[in-house]
Amino acid sequence: MFATPMSHGHDKGIRPHPSAAPQMDLYGTVIMRTLLPTPAFAPLDAAAGDAALPVWDLSDLYGGPDDPALAADLDRAEADARAFEGRLAGRLATLPGDALAQAIGEYEALWERLGRVTSFAGLLFAGDAQNPENGRFYGTTQERVTTISSHLLFFTLEINRLEEAVLEQKVAGSAALEHWRPWLRDLRVFRPHQLSDEVEKLLHEKEVAGAAAWNRLFDETIANMKVTVGGEEMTVSAALNGLSDRDRAKREASAKGVSAAFGERVRLFTLITNTLAKDKEIEDKWRHYPRPGSYRNRSNMVEDEVVDALVTAVRQSYPRLSHRYYQMKAKWLGLEKLQHWDRNAPLPDEDDRLVPWPEAVERVLTSYGAFSPDLAAVGKRFFDKPWIDAALRPGKASGAFAHPTVPSAHPYLLLNYHGKPRDVMTLAHELGHGVHQILAGAQGYLLSSTPLTLAETASVFGEMLTFRAVLDAETDPKRRRAMLAGKVEDMLNTVVRQIAFYRFETLLHDERRKGEISSDRIAELWMQVQVESLGPAFEFTPDYGVYWSYIPHFIHSPFYVYAYAFGDCLVNALYGVYRDGGVKGFQAKYLDMLRAGGTKRHKELLAPFGLNAADPAFWMKGLDVISGFIDELEKTDA
Fold first, then answer.
1. Fewer CB within 10 Å: N-end or C-end of the chain?
2. For 155-165, how does the pLDDT look when each residue is reduced to its tens digit (9 = 90+)?
3. pTM over 0.85
4. Do residues 244 and 472 touch, judged by C-beta distance below 8 A?
């Protein structure tokens, strides 16, 4: 099984990315987020320079949809899965520890083969969702893999039916099974929510005709949409890019174009949202999850209460963070009130020079190398090989992501590079994911899986390394202030905006349990959280009420978004430890943390740095970093 693509646009509210590492689902299998491919080099947008932007080459996975190796892998996987089920179903309780360890190894090998196929199909679809053949291949592959994996479903269900004492006895008597303890530990989290084998198999097989189909409809609808801006038709990605144009009239035109395009289709997006929310409600009730976000929290290996503490801390900090900053921004722009199309407006002193791709690559790798040559060496592989797709073209998934594929291959990065300074930060972010995925891949397909909350660590840390290097090299006070303000905006988008999105999802899913929600009511909920989070500096026009409809997180991964805030606050604290120099051998410890993949929980991973995410003060420490940047801006503004 694997999730459909998630893409992100120019704010992190629409910015992913499917997670930095595979995520475990209820069955203990790894969900490969198929984020999304094509030929070999495309020209850079004329505005961004003359260099060519890279386009990935997927032949390291398969030569194409008709590659005989792909068909052979599926046929072999089906035969092996049937044999695996026939040999082991109903017998796991009687297996000694070494035999169970061997079976887990076989299970991992089967899923890695399936993961290679699903990754290829998803990446092909992401590269050009307008091509109907890509959509057909993507859907057909999902169906075939679901059928094959139904023969593997018994395995994790049976393991979870073992009593704790029985399983512990098997592990204690087998060094081979001890290796799989972290995977077993994470699998057992879902034990209280497991249903009968028959129901689990039904839900598994119906996925392709249920949530996955609605996900695909959402993706294909957006990929084929055209937005009219100033009389010109353009893709959704290009229109969203216009929201950060220096010309306010152009920003407004882009915003109204996006509003009109999504407003025309709002009934469809409302139907998709209502259907998926109801589908989730039904399954959550059967599985006895206490609330809509609980499954995501279990997947992230964090308690509901920890997420509540994060959300509360951020919401309490709105006045000292976003409200305070946007009041300053309104003054800088000479406006009494900001409109929603001013949120990402460039600042008057902001450097609007477009950054050619080679310069962006050099900036990021130099920043990585100053921290750790080993980190930069891994990152350089993405540029030496055709592992990145940064070109701009119709049909391609918007935003950016890093997809791990499988450990026997390598990750791929997708970006839409317009040459703006923030695009350089996006490259630094996604490269962090890619490096993390390579380092964790040594743990193998099952153990490399990192919870979403920790999956953002390497990406946000990579962004911070790059930003700090560029900021420290800047001597002009005005440009330095503009850079600092840009970083504050990125952090607000990562923390405040994501928590607002989480709040919106919570309100929406809670209300959906009372009945179907109208488009107007969804708009009201959306506007409620925007007013609360962004503050009195804004005067929202009614057309902004439809902007919830283009954010793919809500469709593909409900309640995913708080992981960004979790990761940003975590990295703020982690980077503070690095800058203070209080931990000897920080770089080596950091690389070890990335190599650990999913073998350790956040308490173990952060302990070498003297940090504890379970401490309520931890979140305020991360938020204080953002507030400190705003303090600095206020001083320069005085």
1. C
2. 999 999 999 99
3. no
4. no
